Amino acid sequence: MQTITLKEAKAALLGALLLALMAGCDARGQASATPPPPPDVEVAIVKPEAVTLWGAFSGRVEAPQTVEVRPRVSGYVDQVRFEEGALVKEGDVLFVIDPRPYEAQVQMAEAELARMRSQLTLASSEAARSAQLWERRAIAREEFEQRNAAKSMAQAAVNAAAATLQSAQLDLEYTRIKAPVSGRIGRAQVTRGNLATADATLLSTLVSVDPLYVYFESDQQTVQNNPHGESVPVRIGLAGGENFPYQGQLDFIDNQYNPRTGTLQYRAKVANPNGDLRPGQFARVEMPVASAQAALLVDQKAVLTDQDRRYLYVLTDDNKAERRVVETGRQVNGLLVITDGLAAGERVVVNGLQKIAFPGIEVAPELVDMRRAPPPVVVATAR
């Protein structure tokens, strides 16, 4: 039986420990050499769609009718019958000028007309008697003609007195200044007790509110690419807002370009039954400027920017992310129209772009819809 010394036992134990340590290091090296799994990304297939492209413009709201309320007769303001800033209807009395002087003129004109009619009655009777006498040759022809002329003059005087009365009645009616159109009245520029001069003194301003006009201008290129006529639907929103809650209709296109700006003026009519819009407000207008039967739309979050170039990642057949420089067009409900650099049917990375460390990396794609929540209406805005 062979005997093992203590020294040999220690050497054997040390060798076993070294072998175990080397085996552990080799296992860790093999583990560290294993490549990580491909990153998970979401991709969507590009499909051609028929869309209407809309252009965005800046405009201003204006009233179809703007009236400067001025008196037709002179006098002192006796009453102000409206609430400043309120809506008024056509025919509502806004101001009343002291009517007493004009009532007196009407009474004088009525009296003068009655006097002229009395003279006409007398002249008619004398003319009738002179005709009978002339038949019997009881009067001279000269007297017969004079009485007939007197009758004609009396008739003319009656007509003149009637016209004077009508003018006085109009002046009396004009002391009640009425709203010529329905709309919103401004503040009273003249208050009770002040003198208002006919056709000169500004009493207030009145603007119609329903419907309203929105004027905007389009550049020459947009007009040439979209030679449509009137009766085109437009969408209208207020400056600073995000949505376009008002629907309008294009009803006028100017007949010439502005030589200073090179733009053509458009006008849209928009209903305003609740008076939410007010003349003078700035507005944002969207108008259809083009249509595409096979537009390629991509989620705008998938489009990245590198200085002045735009690019996205397209998957190859072996699921490698390929960087692709593209040209973009207008926005369509959160999607971008790709005009160049992309083909229908290609897979575009739409989510997980931060996981793509470098072009050409292999990824694990998960197919999703390009439009997660399809909008009810396809609308595009200019970039």
Key phrases:
single chain; 383 residues; alpha+beta; conserved putative lor/sdh protein from methanococcus maripaludis s2 fold; Helix Hairpins; four-stranded antiparallel β-sheet; rod-shaped; signal; coiled coil; MdtA-like_C; Membrane fusion protein, multidrug efflux system
Q: Could you please describe the fold and organization of this structure?
A:
This protein is α+β, with helices and mostly antiparallel strands. Among the domains are: 40-54 and 291-381, conserved putative lor/sdh protein from methanococcus maripaludis s2 fold (Beta Barrel), CATH 2.40.420; 100-174, Helix hairpin bin (Helix Hairpins). The chain has helices spanning 6-32, 100-135, 141-174, 220-225; strands at residues 40-45, 48-62, 66-69, 75-80, 87-88, 93-97, 176-178, 183-185, 195-196, 204-207, 212-219, 233-238, 246-253, 263-270, 282-299, 304-306, 309-315, 321-332, 335-340, 347-351, 364-368, 380-381. The protein has a 6-stranded antiparallel barrel. Residues 106-175 form the Multidrug resistance protein MdtA-like alpha-helical hairpin domain. Belongs to the membrane fusion protein (MFP) (TC 8.A.1) family. It is found in: Cell inner membrane. GO terms for molecular function: transmembrane transporter activity.
Rg for CA atoms? 45 Å
Name the CATH architecture of the domain at 40-54 and 291-381.
Beta Barrel
Number of extended strands: 22
Written as H for each helix and E for each strand, in order along the chain, the element string is HEEEEEEHHEEEEEHEEEEEEEEEEE
Q: In what range is the share of β-strand residues?
A: 35-45%
Mean of the pLDDT scores?
Answer: 84
What low-confidence regions span 5 or more consecutive residues with pLDDT below 50? 373-383
Shape: rod-shaped
**Main structural class:** alpha+beta
Q: How would you classify the quaternary structure?
A: single chain
Q: Measure the end-to-end span.
A: 96 Å
Helix content: 25-40%
| Biggest sheet strand line-up | 2-11-14-13-12-15
Signal peptide: 1-33
GO molecular function, one term: transmembrane transporter activity
Keywords: Coiled coil, Signal
Protein name: Membrane fusion protein, multidrug efflux system
